[in-house]
Write a structure and sequence with these properties.
This protein is an alpha/beta fold. The protein folds into two domains: 219 residues, inorganic pyrophosphatase (n-terminal core) (Alpha-Beta Complex), CATH 3.90.1640.10; 126 residues, Diaminopimelate Epimerase, Chain A, domain 1 (Roll). It is built from twelve helices and 15 strands. A six-stranded parallel sheet has the order 6-5-4-7-8-9. The chain has a six-stranded mixed sheet with strand order 10-11-12-13-15-14, sandwiched between helices. Strands 1-2-3 form a three-stranded antiparallel sheet. A hairpin with a 6-residue loop joins strand 12 and strand 13. It is globular, with a radius of gyration of 21 Å. Bound molecules: manganese (II) ion. The site of manganese (II) ion has 6 residues, from loops.
Length: 361
């Protein structure tokens, strides 16, 4: 074994792990080993493993599940990814690299072990229910606030920028080989959940991981192009409609944007094409809280996402609508048509913002 660069061990081309001991900001190593142990034990004892994540998967969900699945297959496990929904087109170069299965309602999924990534709780799996998994044990690996540790083994780190980070740290601790598609998946998870390494959840450790992936030969520019420069025409038409719907509230401190379920139909798009849109209302000068919402198919329910600046806890607001998430990015689904939902949510947001402002003075 030799030291090839300052942050990792290799044996030949085989990545063996981080030299986390020499960098203070990366000091979680001994703690990681302890957290990883019961997870590794369950994985060691399983032959068939299902890796799953939340419905309407985003870049981190696809990236982390595909990466972990590819790594598990590399170490000889019969692993596959299961998700309530297909991967959005821009992530299909990842999902097609491993067995990726969208189960029918009620379909039994047979495995020795199930690993749930990037999901606050099991309701995030959408129409895929616990009873459908035949495995006795679940492993819970997540970075969302409020995760109740629902697994037989749990790795919940709300300081991790992405679920993909936890997969990387697990692979490092377990000294598992990381194939290229897993590197691509993990990098995609880091890049998308940190807003291309710009949100506050981007930490020195995040950039060290990304640097490590570049060291290993990851073509990060090609990956970025595949994910961000690969939009179908309909997605830009949808974006134009979304921008046309922008409204300011509370003297510009709140900005909202809304897409109708019929907008999806008319632009031949779907909710999977909205991942980048939530950042639009937040980009407006003076906005403290950005609200993006869209009508779900059928027009009776509305998906809401909140984006806040540093000092406002968007998750608290999302919880008023039985939602959850992070401080700066949270969401909920409400059982109201779009127009009613918009009025209700904006009224609550105005009240919330005024209350939050008062309490800090
Ligand atoms: Mn995530």
């Amino acid at each position: 074994m030799r030291l090839r660069n300052r942050s990792a061990f290799y044996e030949g081309d085989r990545f063996l792990g981080h030299r986390t001991d020499r960098t203070p900001s990366h000091s979680g190593r001994s703690e990681d080993a302890e957290t990883a142990r019961p997870i590794q034990k369950l994985i060691d004892g399983a032959k068939t493993i299902i890796v799953t994540g939340h419905e309407r998967p985003d870049g981190d969900c696809i990236g982390s599940t595909v990466a972990l699945c590819a790594i598990l297959r590399e170490i000889g496990k019969d692993a596959r990814v299961v998700n309530a929904d297909a991967a959005p087109t821009r992530y299909q170069f990842l999902s097609t690299a491993v067995p990726y299965h969208v189960p029918a309602d009620g379909e039994k999924m047979v495995s020795d072990l199930t690993i749930v990534l990037d999901s606050t709780d099991l309701s995030r799996l959408g129409r895929v229910k616990r009873e459908q998994f035949t495995s006795e044990n679940l492993i819970d690996m997540d970075h969302h606030l409020g995760n109740p540790h629902f697994g037989a083994a749990n790795w919940v780190d709300t300081k991790a920028c992405a679920a993909a980070e936890l997969v990387w740290r697990l692979a490092s601790i377990c000294k598992w080989p990381v194939p290229m598609v897993a590197l691509q998946g993990m990098y995609a998870g880091l890049m998308t959940d940190t807003g291309q390494f710009s949100y506050g959840n981007t930490r020195p450790r995040t950039l060290r991981m990304a640097a490590e992936m570049m060291d290993r030969g990851l073509d990060f520019e090609k990956l970025w192009q595949r994910i961000y420069l690969n939009k179908p025409w309909g997605e830009l038409q949808l974006e134009a409609r979304a921008r046309a719907s922008l409204q300011a509230h509370l003297g510009g401190r709140i900005c909202s944007m809304a897409i109708r379920d019929t907008d999806f139909v008319e632009t031949k798009t779907g909710p999977q094409h909205t991942e980048d849109l939530a950042s639009i209302p937040r980009s407006v000068e003076g906005v403290e809280l950005a609200i993006f919402m869209y009508g779900l198919p059928g027009g009776k329910r509305t998906k809401i996402s909140f984006r806040s600046t540093q000092d406002l806890d968007a998750r608290q607001l999302a919880q008023q609508f039985n939602g959850g998430g992070h401080r700066q990015a949270a969401g909920a689904t409400v059982e109201l048509p779009l127009d009613e939902a918009r009025a209700t949510v904006i009224a609550a947001a105005e009240k919330f913002l005024l209350g939050a402002t008062k309490s800090t003075h």
